[in-house]
Design a protein that fits this description.
single chain; 8-stranded mixed sheet; 8-stranded parallel beta barrel; EC 2.7.9.1; pyruvate, phosphate dikinase activity; ATP_grasp_subdomain_1
Length: 903
């Protein structure tokens, strides 16, 4: 089947699709079709395509043809099932479920039991031989329909349900009998009439049509948009709608519903993983309202269904060649498959599963590399709790998403967001989460619930976001109204510190110390692969990193300013230094020497200041070249405005004023204050800095070049292999570079003559101004390499200062969708990226052997690394901690491009 179908066709039977049609049928619809094709027991149904949703969202109304198409498919379904939708004596009931291309768990709407009414509920009871089941199904429909379709506050239904249980003296829904549920249905209908301004619809087709529109509308709810921004899912995809004949897990103890994984999504280990709940519908499992039993217990409850499920799970994993997440229902001993998808997993599970599948021959190494990403690797590098430290255990739940999270206890999403924005680290604690908690989950360091399991809303969403999560901590009583939790005699109030260990499921009172991640210890050479769980993870990371390093074209360097950072970067796999910022060498005790340079009134004073700095700079470079022996080291000459080396103007003014009032003026302070006023600029980042310093302060750049050259000569004479590169910052025109380069070449020649050592020092520039990018062809005539300074390039292209705007309006821009992500985090491909691409092409046209790199923070951003591979850079440079991430993503970019070429 091709996606290029007749544009008038908006509805597809499950028999018509396949798993590759996610763009058209959404993930759920495509996979229901695939399971149907595999001959698995899928309830019959049909899918309304994403194209119909797009028309609806664009025009505000459904396509004109849609109603008739749905009617035709509904009629075919009714014939197949031998009963009609909502038929009074034997009703066909259907679910109306969302299903976008990418999984968005709990973010969009679903309505079950469509077709029930005051008349058909009686027929359902008669056909099922179970009056309680029928009325329970009807109250569920009114509750879901009222909240989802008619916009009634869901708490009103929950309060009525809780009141009914309290009046009966029971604690769980299943203990309400048919008479109780009949009364509850009447209450629910009154709530709908009062709060929706209309009665609950009795016409089954009207129920279906309104539910379809509600699913379309749910694509643009606040929580769905927030989730898409968090997961970087495009906002123009729309959602499909799946109409599926109902099967019932709430028909008694021989029925039930569950969620299963073909491998543990938390660890990646093979086994029987999932949750099962007898006498329940699917929402009960996902919502975490009732605590489930482990899937393995299904074997003793219903062995025939269990055995069949195990075979199906094996079939699906082999077919999809990946961890599969499965939803199923058992209706009086008959197993039905309601959904499958490639399951979300933790970072550790992703690496383990990828290598396991290689060993099983299901995928190759290139595919394994595509199954993991840099964000997951970064998660594995975070610290973990020190289990040997003294700690107070509060309780234990299900380890749903690993990590070590410490923060102040908060009991609602609003507080989590508010405190987080004030700089507090928080742990969101709930009985169970629901989609409305998404913003609080994003803000929190970790999530703790007293209900639910590995397949609950909290667990699934947390795993997708890489958040630490513990679910189903039953011994912890959560009181959201009083804003506290209790465990026995221990009470934790809102604001108290708690620690949540998503790897073990343990929850501690107070702050537990952390220790380095085993993955970091591996990168630093302090851990090797072995037999235990941590070593197994390290072994998986090692295998995938080794393959990434074999296939990647981009080299990865480090931003490092001293020997200690350089040595660590090298252990992390750095292939050189892409940015050494020499201004960091002028801080601390050396600041006074820089002050003397700035205050120099005569040539002699200036030369004396430079002469004092020269040996210190040289010693720094010797250490750096030694730590990176045999690898390139790009040294950027002094870049920041000189005022950054002087005291704060306000602080200095107060000091001078106080001294004058005491008749005890300090001559040096007076001169410093004059210098500060002289150097003051309204916008120093666009003022006297970078190459401009070298042009207006005689001898400054010459001193730095001399220090570099003498250090390189000394290392070379000591049988070392220094590979220094000199980078001129903030060049906007080739004439600037030519003047500085002429001076640098002269200094290098002098050092070569004095030391009798041949030095091959390359000289290049940073491309960090739009003009430099636009005239890159001219600049390449005088530069042997370019390094893109994308931090400044982003500031100058967009016209805003990173230090000022991120706190002032970036949040609003992200919320309004102007930014999908901060342009300082991921490169703006259309603007900044276009300049980079243009400069690469122009530079290489002038100088084919021009070396090209990037040394802004984008060099360690996964998505940006793929862009730099695409435009043809030679290397990326980033902070030492991000080097493994850049290495992995460079490998993924190469494997991805090879795959594209082969296709």
């Amino acid at each position: 089947m091709s996606e290029n179908k007749d544009p008038q066709k908006f509805v597809y039977d499950f028999t018509e699709g396949n798993k590759d049609l996610k763009d058209l049928l959404g993930g759920k619809g495509a996979n229901l079709a695939e399971m149907t094709n595999l001959g698995l027991p899928v309830p019959p149904g049909f899918t309304i395509s994403t194209e119909a949703c797009k028309v609806y969202l664009d025009s505000g109304d459904e396509p004109a043809e849609l109603r008739d198409e749905v009617g035709a498919h509904l009629e075919a379904l009714e014939k197949r099932m031998g009963k009609n939708l909502g038929q009074a004596d034997d009703p066909l009931l259907v679910s109306v479920r969302s299903g976008a291309k990418f999984s968005m768990p709990g973010m969009m709407d679903t309505v079950l039991n469509i077709g029930l009414s005051d008349a058909s509920v009686v027929g359902l009871a008669a056909q099922a031989g179970d009056e309680r089941f029928a009325w329970d199904s009807y109250r569920r429909l009114i509750q879901m329909f009222g909240k989802t379709v008619l916009g009634v506050d869901g708490d009103l239904f929950e309060e009525a349900l809780e009141a009914a249980k309290e009046a009966k003296g029971v604690t769980v829904d299943v203990d309400l009998d048919a008479a109780d549920l009949k009364k509850l249905v009447e209450q629910f209908k009154k709530i709908v009439t009062r709060d929706a301004g209309r009665e609950f619809p009795q016409d089954p087709r009207e129920q279906m049509d309104l539910a379809i529109k509600a699913v379309f509308d749910s694509w643009n709810t606040d929580r769905a948009k927030l989730y898409r921004r968090q997961e970087r899912i495009p906002g123009d995809l729309g959602t499909a709608v799946n109409i599926c004949s109902m099967v019932f897990g709430n028909l008694g103890p021989d029925s039930g519903t569950g969620v299963a994984f073909t491998r543990d999504p938390a660890s990646g280990h093979q086994g029987v993983y999932g949750d099962y709940l007898q006498n329940a519908q699917g929402e009960d499992v996902v919502a975490g309202i009732r605590n489930t039993v482990p899937l393995a217990e299904l074997e003793s409850i219903d062995k025939a269904s269990y055995d069949q499920l195990m075979k199906i799970m094996e079939t699906l994993e082999t077919h999809y060649k990946d961890l599969c997440d499965i939803e199923f229902t058992i209706e009086r001993g008959q197993l039905w498959m309601l959904q499958t998808r490639v399951g979300k997993r933790t970072a550790g599970a992703a690496f383990r599963i990828a290598t396991q599948l290689v060993d099983q021959g299901l995928i190759d190494e290139a595919e394994a590399l595509q199954r993991v990403n840099g964000a997951q690797l970064a998660q594995l590098m975070f610290p973990r709790f020190d289990h040997g430290a003294a700690s107070v255990l509060l309780g234990r739940g299900i380890a749903a998403s690993p990590g070590a999270a410490v923060g102040k206890a908060v009991f609602d999403s609003y507080t989590a967001v508010k405190w987080s924005r004030s700089g507090e680290k928080v742990i969101l604690i709930r009985r169970e989460t629901n989609p409305d908690d998404l913003d609080g989950m994003i803000a929190a360091e970790g999530i703790l619930t007293s209900r639910g399991g590995k397949t609950s809303h909290a667990a699934v969403v947390a795993r997708g976001m890489g958040k630490t999560c513990v679910c189903g901590a039953e011994e912890i009583e959560v009181d959201t109204k009083r804003r506290r939790l209790t465990v026995g005699d221990t009470v934790v109030e809102e604001g108290d510190l708690v620690s949540v260990d998503g790897s073990t499921g343990k929850v501690y009172l107070g702050e537990v110390p952390v220790v380095p991640s085993p993955v970091v210890e591996y990168f630093e050479g302090r851990m090797h692969a072995g037999a235990d769980d941590a070593d197994e993870l390290v072994a998986a990371v090692h295998r995938i990193m080794a393959y990434a390093d074999r296939v990647r074209r981009l080299r990865v360097r480090a931003n490092a300013d001293n020997a200690e950072d350089a040595s660590r970067a090298r252990r992390f796999g750095a292939q050189g230094i892409g940015l050494c910022r020499t201004e960091h060498m002028f801080l601390g005790e050396r600041r006074e020497m820089v002050e003397k340079l700035i205050l120099a009134d005569t040539d002699d004073e200036r030369e004396a200041a430079l002469d004092a700095l020269l040996p210190l700079q040289k010693a720094d470079f010797i250490e750096l070249f030694e730590s990176m022996d045999g690898l390139p080291v790009t040294v950027r000459l002094l870049d920041p405005p000189l005022h950054e080396f002087l005291p704060d103007i306000t602080e200095l003014s107060v000091r001078v004023a106080l001294a004058e009032s005491r008749k005890d003026a300090n001559e040096n302070d007076l001169r410093l204050l004059q210098a500060v006023h002289k150097l003051h600029e309204q916008n120093p980042m666009l003022g006297l800095r970078g190459v401009r310093l070298g042009l207006v302060i005689p001898g400054l750049f010459a001193m730095q070049v001399r220090a570099i050259a003498e250090a390189a000569a000394q290392r070379k004479n000591a049988k070392g292999d220094p590979r220094a590169e000199i980078m001129i910052p903030l060049v906007g025109t080739v004439q600037e570079l030519e003047i500085v380069r002429e001076e640098a070449d002269q200094v290098i020649a002098e050092v070569e003559a004095a030391t009798g050592t041949e030095l091959r020092l390359s000289i290049g520039t940073m491309i960090e101004l739009p003009r430099a990018a636009l005239t890159a062809g001219q600049i390449a005539e005088a530069a042997q390499f370019f390094s893109f300074g994308t931090n400044d390039l982003t500031q100058t292209v967009w016209g805003f200062s990173r230090d000022d705007v991120e706190a002032s309006f970036f949040t609003a821009y992200l919320e309004k969708g102007i930014f999908g992500v901060s342009p300082f985090e991921t490169i703006d491909k259309d603007g900044v990226g276009a300049l980079v691409r243009s400069a690469v092409e122009a530079g290489r046209a002038t100088r084919p052997d021009l070396k090209l790199g990037i040394c802004g923070e984008h060099g360690g951003d996964p998505e940006s690394v793929h862009f730099f591979h695409e435009v043809g850079l030679d290397y990326v440079s980033c902070s030492p901690f991000r080097i493994p991430v850049a290495r992995l993503e460079a490998g993924r970019a190469a494997a991805e491009s090879r795959g594209s070429d082969s296709r």
